[in-house]
Amino acid sequence: MVKVDAREAKEKLDGRILVLGGGGLVGSRFLELYGGDFVVPSKTELDITDPEEVRRFIEEQKPDFIINFAAYTNVSGSERPEEKGKKDGQCWRINVEGVRNILDALDPKNTHFIQISTDMVFSGKVDDPGPYSEDHPPEKDETKLTWYGFTKAEAERLVLNKLGDDATILRINYPVRAKYNRKLDYLQAPLAKYREGNLWPLFTDQQISITFIDEACEALARVVKGKYRGIFHAASSDITTPYEIIPYFIREVEGTEVKVQSRPLGDFEGRYAKYAGLRVEETQRRLGIRFSTWKEIADELAKQSRT
Ligand SMILES: NC(=O)c1ccc[n+]([C@@H]2O[C@H](COP(=O)([O-])OP(=O)(O)OC[C@H]3O[C@@H](n4cnc5c(N)ncnc54)[C@H](OP(=O)(O)O)[C@@H]3O)[C@@H](O)[C@H]2O)c1
Fold it and tell me: Which domains does the chain have, with CATH numbers?
C-alpha cells in the first residue's frame, strides 16, 4: 500500500475510502491533509487497467467511497504517435478503460464514486471560450482537444452515462502545492528553470486559472462529508496569464526583481488552449467554500516554500 503520511491531518473523514492514485501530486496531498479509514493501493497492487483485479479488489474492500486520482497525466506524452488516437495506448487504457473497469465493478448504491478531472475536457478555443462553469458540456470533437483531454472527457461521459444523477466529478487545473518530490508543478517548474537561468518566454495572452491543491482537497473532503453529487470545480476564483502569475510567484519566493521574457501564443495557439480556466461560483455556493484568488495562492505557496 502507498505510505500515508498524515502528520498534518486536520480532520478525520467517516467511511471506508478507496483512494486510487494516492501517490500522485494531488492524491498524496489529500492523504496528508485528511485522516480516515483509507485504503491506498499502489499501481502494482491494483492496476486499474485490469478489470478482474479491479472487480476483486472492490469486492474485497467494500469501500463507501472511491476517489479516482489515478490517471495518465503526461499531456505532451499523450500527443506522441504511440498514444494519440490509440485505444491500445497507455493514455486511453488508464484514463478511459480504467474508469470503465471501476464503474463496472462498483455498486452505486453502496459506493460513492468521485472522478477527478480537468479543464482540458474543454477546447479553450475562440469558438467555445472559457472560463467554464460546472455545467458547460465537455468537448466531443477530439480534434479540438489534446489526446489526454479527450480521454478525460470520454471518462466523464462514461461516469455520467453510468451513474446519472449520482455522478460526482471534481475538475481541477494546473494543481499547485508547496512541496512534492516526485514532479514539479505549474509554478515550481518555471521557478526551477529561472534558477538555472533557463526560463522559457511566458505567454502574455493565454487565459488560465490554477488550483491550490490544499483547497481542492478541502472541496473533496466537503463532497465526502456531505455526500454531494454533481460536477464541481476547484480553482482560483479569478483568471490570470502565465506572464502575470509566474514572475509574480518567482519574485515572492526569491524576494528580488525578476526579469523574464514574454511572447504571445502565436503559432502555439493550435497546441495550447488560449481561453482556458474554470469558474467556481456554483461549487463555492454548494459546498460553502471560498477559493483564493491566484495572487493569494501564489502568496501562500511562496510563504510555505520559504519555511
Ligand atoms: N497534474 C495536472 O496538471 C492535472 C491537471 C488537471 C487535472 N489533473 C487530474 O488530477 C488527477 C491527479 O493528477 P496528478 O497530477 O496527481 O497525477 P500524477 O501525479 O501523475 O499521479 C497519477 C497517479 O495515478 C497512478 N496510476 C497511473 N496509472 C495507474 C494504473 N494503471 N493503475 C493504478 N494507478 C495508476 C500513479 O501511480 P504511480 O505513482 O505508481 O505511477 C499515480 O499515483 C488526475 O485525474 C489528473 O487527470 C491533473
Answer: 11-306 (3.40.50.720)
